[in-house]
Amino acid sequence: MDKKELEQIVERYNRSQGQIIAILHEIQDQERYLPENDLRYVAEKLNMPVAQIYHIATFYKAFSLKPKGRHICNVCMGTACHVRGAPLVLEELERKLGIKAGDTTPDMEYSITTVNCLGACALGPVVVVGKDYYGNMTPAKVERMLKEIKAKSNGGAKTKVQSEPDEDDDSTGEEKSTQEITAPQSEVKNEKVVEAKEEPEPKPSSVKKEREKKSSKKFSKPSSKKIAGAKKKGGKK
Amino acid sequence: MRFSSPAELERYREKLRTGYDPSQPYIAICGGTGCLALGSAEVRQAFEEAISKNGLKVKVRMKFTGCHGFCEKGPLVVIHPQENLYVSVKPKDVLEILEKTVEQGEVLENLLYKDPLTKEKIARESEVPFYKHQKRLVFGMNGMIDPQSIDDYIRIGGYSALSKALYQMSPEQIISEVKKANLRGRGGGGFPAGVKWETCREAHGDIRYVIINADEGDPGAYMDRSLLEGNPHSVLEGMIIGAYAIAYGVSPVQGYIYVRHEYPLAVQYFTKAVETARKYGLLGKNILGKEGFNFDIQINQGGGAFVCGESSALMASLEGKPGEPRAKYVHTVHKGIYNQPSNLNNVETWANVPLIINNGADWYRAMGTEGSKGTKIFSLVGKINNTGLVEVPMGITLREIVYEIGGGIRGGKKFKAVQTGGPSGGCIPESMLDLPVDYDELTKVGSMMGSGGMIVMDEDTCMVDVARYFLDFLKGESCGKCTPCREGIKQVLTILNRICEGGGEEKDLARLEELGNAIHDCALCALGGTAANPLLTTLKYFRSEYETHIRDKKCPAGVCRALVVYEIDAEKCTGCMACAKQCPQNAITGEKKKPHILDQSKCIKCGICYTTCKFDAVIRK
Amino acid sequence: MEQENKILQVKINDKPVSVQYGTTVLEAAKKIGVEIPTLCYHPALEAYGVCRVCIVEMKRGKRSRIVTSCNYPIQEDGLEFFTNTERIQRDRKIVIEMLLARCWDSPVIREFAAKFGIYDTDLEKTKNEQCMLCGLCVNVCRDLIGQSAITFESRGVDRKTVVPFHKPSDACIGCGACAYVCPTGCIKLENLPQERVIERWQSELPLLTCKICGKGFGTARQLEILKEKNPLTRLYLTTCPECREKELAEKMIKQGGVL
Question: Looking at beta carbons, which residues of chain B come within 8 Å of A143?
């Protein structure tokens, strides 16, 4: 990042050392990692020893001193996902991409990271890539998930794929949404459930407002105000 | 619009209430993480499009709310005023919902919750067993408000507790009330909040700090997230009352909230709550017109460190240092951030405060057990049918939670254990299911209440693997400062891994206990201090599983892959090819109608063939 | 504050001792000649309390608790501390075993463990590690010298003492305080004719040479900083300690015993 931008970020946080984490998040969101020069410059601006900023950058797992791949596959390793088989999913992903969790493929396309609980336990095991949630994952579905990621990033047609919980989940006899899925029965596809926020959209800054405008996701401002212009008689409040 | 007196606030509230017709149809769409992941944003979009395209014959209100709790059945939609709950709603259901239910009050049978045992379809949300057995005091309003609207919060009674606290009570009276109510820390420690507030007020310092701990790191626990995303003002109001009680008349006071980085939506909604509260004069100078009560709050994020949920580590992080804990021989309530008196409480603890102030300590004490009052929100996850967030009165038994609310074990399997307290907690076996949910009762059996994660485990869960899982988690989260945590956890994990891979020895169990006890005694902070709990409780209640791993080199639950062998029984195999198709390693070969062959050299023991086969032809040894 | 001047009465191994409010158990023990083993403690620095070797058992009424004596401040009357109970012996032994497994290649740690009868361990041993992560080097550089040239990186089992970005640091003045306080001697400081080298931090700093004997006696940077913080005479800045002493002694003799 150029020095002017860095300075602006630091100013926005009132040059407060206490906000170092927020400052580093902003840099990493833009650069996909924390460049050494940026860290040294920020340390200078904050009157913080380089040693301290270095420890902070290496202490917190959200930060990386090495560039991350374009697609970061975040595998949830929370307890609920674990008892439902997340380690097997992670292993398969590592096998398919040829890298271990924490690393990036040589072509800088994919990184694998693990995270402890995303709060989507009903869908476990879960892998999040960007804003897309891949739920009810099994090792068998990993390859399909990777194909979808590739297709999406190549600007492929939006594959609105559905997912079904694994068949053994059905044995309670409850009606599951599998009944309503229109996909051919022999195939088990992955659902790409779009959640607006696991990645950096909302930030407490003016940069955030700009980004939200660019986002095409309808969810970015969930409130009842949206229906104000509706045709129905009277407003909705 | 700044309220400079309770009267102004009440006038505004009255105005909001008269403008709100409760008989008017209201569509509540759950926007909690679970439902979002299942597609509720698309459902909402469908509603919006349908309404704007076709219009409606009636005036209707619609809100994208916070988490309703029944995550298993999302996307959830509730139609008021009849309180009609629809589960697993899809965008294609929306038109019918609008035409039949909203406009005509007709119930759509196919969208109703169906009780798996009685097969009964239930229309009213409060009659669904999942909800019926809960006591949703803190969580209950999630479905009725737009989390981004301070007006919604005020309309349902928000900030009336603050009014009462500032104008009808003294700081000392507030502390006394919270002490009497015996509100104990909901983050896991269970320390009496009122006592903490009192100590903080009486400590020596030039400024006091009041903090919301929203670092919620226990894997499988997402209660705090849902509170911040569903009803952020309830937490904020509690904190403002706390700040008043702790500092008014004593010193200036500054607030912080420390939110996990993985919760950007919570940060967004809470920021909005803070901004609107400021606008309304509920934060900043002379709050609600109370002369000299100045308080504001700064929002800080985490960087991916579980240890930052520990109070001294959190405070170090707030100061711009690495989140390393320090010895707490001098409590942070005396010397915390920048060595000043600092009062830290969990999100859920703060959310309880307005209820106590409004309804009184006696009301609060009427719920719960002798030592644990009020309610607690749990995230009920794992091998349970009804995954979700539940709020129950203290004293309810674990059995009730697992079976009546949770609907029992998924897939008809056998219950094995329930894990509470996250990585600091322990596993509770079936024999203790009648234990009441109570801070001290849970601690007595070696576990703890923790922040509320309740992971249900069944016959297919290996308890040695569970111990290994938690220790592996802690190994990655240890700050590394002190010997017993950094080296001890690593050594325990080495032994556990060896056991799970078939290299267990007789002397291992005693050694594990010895190491566990030393880690417990000597660690610098609570992360290390409680790290041995998952190990020691599984050793205590599931020792036979460890012994089977060590002596027989077998994993009874079939989880530890080095100790499990899958084989195809040629006599039972029908040659349907189902398993072969599912095998991620293509280790199964065979033709249609001919018995298949499993190549052991390729087998990764994932167990997919075992669960796929409908003829019991895959054997697990 | 009044209470900070209070005198408190406590017992260590059943021996009574009076201490001022806030005195640590270690200090109190020293007062009455009770020895408690330590590793990461250094009198010049604030106790970091990480090695956990100095643990003692504290009894207050019926309750018992393990605390580190180096940084436990005595704040009430009637506390009783025990430095060698069975529980302490058990726990301390395990802690030392853990350190030994980590620093198996450190003669200093082996010698220390031997004092407690620990010569080996069945715990998994790390190879080529002599640093016990006591933090003395990092803390002395930051708190006493004020340079913050070195730091910890990462966390957990990956925690290491390093120079930031693994590159030579501008902040290092080559004073050698880190090497001096290191209990295991894993920070090697070498004085070459013209340079001081601290390999662990990739520090190579030019030495000032004594105008009398020609020996290198301090890095230029180090003396610069000292000069900023203290009024130093020319003699200090140009001669090595031995020659300086000789010079001062001669001066004194010349001036009849007065400087």
Answer: 584
The answer to whether B475 faces chain C, any CB pair under 8 Å, is yes
Total structural domains in chain B?
A: 5
- Cβ A174 vs Cβ A118: under 8 Å: no
CATH number of the structural domain spanning residue B574: 3.30.70.20
In this predicted structure, the answer to whether residue C56 has a pLDDT above a threshold of 80 is: yes
pLDDT confidence tier of residue A233, bands split at 50, 70 and 90:
very low
Same domain, C140 and C129: no
Question: In this predicted structure, which of B128-137, C31-40, C210-219 has the lowest mean pLDDT?
Answer: C210-219
The domain tally of chain C equals 3
pLDDT value for B356: 98
Same domain, B186 and B330: yes
* Position with higher pLDDT, C35 vs C231: C35
List phi, psi (to 5°) of C46: -65, 135
**pLDDT mean over A154-178:** 38
Residues B229 and B329 in one domain: yes
Residue B465's closest CA among B431, B491, B433, B427? B427
Does residue C61 sit in the same domain as residue C93?
A: no
Where in the sequence is the domain holding C246, given as residue range(s)? 136-254
DSSP secondary structure code for residue B487 in this structure = I
| Residue pair B430/B410 in contact by the 8 Å Cβ criterion | no
Q: Does residue B274 sit in the same domain as residue B329? A: yes
Q: Which of C153, C154, C164 sits opposite A50 (nearest CB)?
A: C164
Q: CA of C190, closest CA in chain B: separation in Å?
A: 29
Is there a contact between C157 and B490 (Cβ–Cβ < 8 Å)? Answer: yes
Task: Determine what percent of chain A is predicted with pLDDT higher than 70.
Answer: 65
Query: Is there a domain that residue C259 lies in?
Result: no
Are both C142 and C220 inside the same structural domain? yes
Instruction: Give residue C72's pLDDT.
Output: 98
DSSP per residue over chain A, as a string?
Answer: --HHHHHHHHHHTTT-GGGHHHHHHHHHHHHSS--HHHHHHHHHHHT--HHHHHHHHHHSTT--SSPPPSEEEEEE--HHHHHTTHHHHHHHHHHHHT--TT-B-TTSSEEEEEES--S-GGG-S-EEETTEEE-S--HHHHHHHHHHHHHHHTT-----------GGGGGG----GGGG--S-TT--PPP-EE-S-SSS---SSHHHHHHHHH---GGGS-SGGGGGG-SSSS---
Strand partners, A215: none
Mean pLDDT of chain B: 94
Q: Does A182 lie at the interface with B, CB-CB under 8 angstroms?
A: no
pTM for the full predicted model: 0.89
**C71-123 pLDDT, tens per residue?**
999 999 999 999 999 999 999 999 999 999 999 999 999 999 999 999 999 99
| B469's tokens | 């899982």
For chain C, say whether B322 makes contact (Cβ under 8 Å): yes
Residue whose C-alpha is closest to residue B347's, from B520, B465, B231, B199:
B231
Which residues form the domain of B117?
20-126
Q: Give the residue numbers spanning the domain of A154.
A: 71-167+182-194
Mark whether A9 and A124 lie in a shared domain.
no
Q: Quick check: B348 and B247 in contact, CB under 8 A?
A: no
Residue A186 lies in a domain: yes
Q: Which residues of C touch B518 (CB under 8 A)?
A: 90-91, 94-95
Q: At C25, which CATH number?
A: 3.10.20.740
User: Considering all CA atoms of chain C, what is the largest pairwise distance in Å, rounded to the nearest integer?
Assistant: 70
- Whether residue C245 sits in one domain with residue C190: yes
* Residue C4 predicted with pLDDT over 90: no
Q: Which of residues 483-542 of B touch C (CB under 8 A)?
A: 483-484, 486-488, 490-491, 494, 511, 514-515, 517-518, 521-524
Min Cα separation C4/chain A (Å): 30
Q: Is residue A177 part of a domain?
A: no
Tell me the chain A residues in contact with residue B264 when contact means C-beta distances shorter than 8 Å: 197-203
